[in-house]
């Protein structure tokens, strides 16, 4: 089973990649001196050189008390009082995720039973400016197929099936098995896979998404479909 420390490392790698793609310089385990001379260590610091915005990312457990988080925010604000454009980004991670791990392994097992090469014609994305159930359904189906492709590639390259799809995706990028859609396609998506995942939370909360996001999802799916066939030939034996 993946340890909490390993999960935190995976999380920080994902977040670092996310901020780098936003044009930020990223430093992991960044040390900052407090006014009293002591040092505070942040999990990750990202600085946008154009806007001068500074993002402090902290990986925290969802079970931490709200007062603890408030104290941490105050400590960060004190440590960085000379930086007016600081934003704090808490990324939550659970230490008790046996159910999640089982679900991910079951997802990978079901992937084995499905045909990895999905050749059916994709439905046209409805060009609708207002919220539409039809558009949401197409987007969710495309993202499911994208995740299915990622899991299939993860199995081919013997990656841990207990990892989340985006962790597997990140490992495939690190291995050079995949190139991100925004680099692979000439007219690539504006949002990367990690940003898409965040946007889809809106749907899970009962909202809707835009046609632009739906088109970005389709581009991610198109990209991984093209790349999967080629990379499968290079899979380790």
TrEMBL record:
Residues 5-104 form the REase AHJR-like domain. Pfam families: AHJR-like. InterPro entries: AHJR-like. It comes from the Bacteria. This is REase AHJR-like domain-containing protein.
């Amino acid at each position: 089973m993946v340890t909490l420390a390993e999960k935190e490392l995976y999380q920080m790698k994902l977040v670092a990649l996310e901020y780098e793609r936003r044009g930020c310089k990223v430093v992991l385990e960044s040390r900052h001196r407090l006014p009293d001379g002591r040092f505070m260590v942040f999990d990750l610091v990202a600085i946008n050189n154009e806007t001068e915005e500074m993002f402090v990312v902290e990986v925290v457990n969802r079970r931490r008390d709200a007062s603890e988080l408030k104290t941490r925010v105050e400590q960060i604000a004190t440590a960085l009082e000379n930086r007016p454009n600081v934003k704090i980004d808490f990324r939550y991670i659970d230490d008790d995720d046996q159910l999640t791990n089982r679900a991910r392994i079951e997802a990978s097992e079901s992937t084995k039973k499905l045909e990895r090469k999905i050749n059916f014609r994709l439905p046209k994305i409805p060009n609708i400016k207002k919220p539409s159930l039809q558009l949401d359904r197409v987007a969710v189906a495309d993202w499911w197929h994208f995740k299915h492709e990622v899991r299939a590639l993860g199995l081919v390259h013997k990656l841990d099936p207990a990892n989340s799809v985006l962790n597997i995706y990140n490992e495939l990028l690190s291995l050079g098995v995949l190139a991100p859609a925004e680099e692979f396609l000439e007219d690539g998506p504006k949002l990367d896979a990690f940003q898409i995942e965040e946007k889809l939370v809106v749907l899970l909360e009962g909202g809707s998404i835009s046609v632009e996001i739906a088109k970005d999802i389709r581009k991610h799916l198109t990209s991984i479909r093209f790349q999967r066939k080629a990379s499968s030939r290079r899979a380790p034996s």
